[in-house]
Amino acid sequence: MTRFAPSPTGLLHLGHVASALAGWTQKGPHGLWLVRMEDIDPQRCRDDYATALLEDLDWLGLRSARPVLRQSANMPAYRATLDRLEQMGVLYPCFCTRSDIARESAGMMSAPHAAPDGSLLYPGTCRSLSAPARAAALAAGKPHVLRLDMAKALNSLRTEVPALWPLAYQDLARGTVQCQPELFGDVVLARRDVPASYHLCVTHDDAAQGVTLVTRGDDLRPATDLHRLIQALMGWPTPAYLYHPLLCDAQGRRLSKRDGAKAVRAMREAGMTPEDVRAAAGYPDALR
Ligand code: GLU
Question: Which residues form the Glutamyl/glutaminyl-tRNA synthetase class Ib catalytic domain (predicted)?
């Protein structure tokens, strides 16, 4: 079972189509292909975009084999996952603001300061808060995120489930990949504005929906190392992974929703057929 998991932050564009077809063409003759809306961010995601994405996919001949899961409606499942991680003692509340982190990171002399996704590596300030200070901040309703205590998570896995060590997964193109989740540091698993995060939700849903092959853009390759760690902590199965190159424009820039002309809707209005659009995304034979 494969899936396409867009965030409804704009209209379906050619990059999405390539990504959707990467999964579709790998599902096998009897396999299923699912669509999931990764819409936990109310600032960026819109219902009308979700509806338009599904309409355009339908026009392209790409229909989800099961009802479309909307992450925004799945919050209790993410909460339950956070509760389990909390019980394991591998989560802690962090009260730092973005500028606190930038200031604290700048004061540290050791490199590197960035996680593989480009975010600032958290210097660990709130990890060492005393229990009374933490309780007081929580009781005062101070806004906070929940972070994974990376060192603790890795240590507990190493000692409790040594058979899983070293953490690895199968990349269909490259074979066994050894993971380095530690490069992410104490990553945020529940945001301040949304009580969940991309890493938490995507890993939860791939497991809960029984996805056996995750096809995703090359940009998300490093994130899989972190997802593998969450799977190990939660005792979830590990799918296989396959990465596809990101579509770029003539200048070599990654296609995004800003490229209005590459929106499937515009192509459709300009008279292109679904087959033309599938071919433009690099999959001329996908539905034959
Ligand atoms: N929702 C993510 C995106 O739109 C992709 C999900 C994934 O493959 O992990 O980039």
Answer: 2-275
| Residue 85 burial (CB count, 10 A) | 20
The domain defined by 1-73+247-288 folds into Rossmann fold (3.40.50)
Helix axes 221-234, 75-87, angle to 10 degrees: 70
**Per-domain residue ranges of the chain:** 1-73+247-288, 75-210+219-236
Of 268, 253, 211, 283, the residue nearest 52 (C-alpha): 268
Q: How confident is the model at residue 114, as a pLDDT? A: 87
Question: Ligand 1, from 198, 203, 242: best to mutate by most atoms within 8 Å of Cβ?
Answer: 198
The two three-digit tokens of residue 23, written as one number: 């999964």
Q: What are phi and psi of 114, to 5 degrees?
A: -115, 140
At 65-96, the pLDDT tens digits run: 999 999 999 999 999 999 999 999 999 999 99
CA dist., res. 120 & res. 94, Å (int)? 14
Rounded distance between C-alpha atoms, residue 44 and residue 48, angstroms: 12
> Residues with beta carbon inside 6 Å of ligand 1?
5-7, 38, 202, 216, 220
Q: Where in the chain does DSSP place strands (E)?
A: 2-4, 33-37, 69-70, 91-94, 145-148, 168-171, 175-178, 188-190, 213-217, 240-244
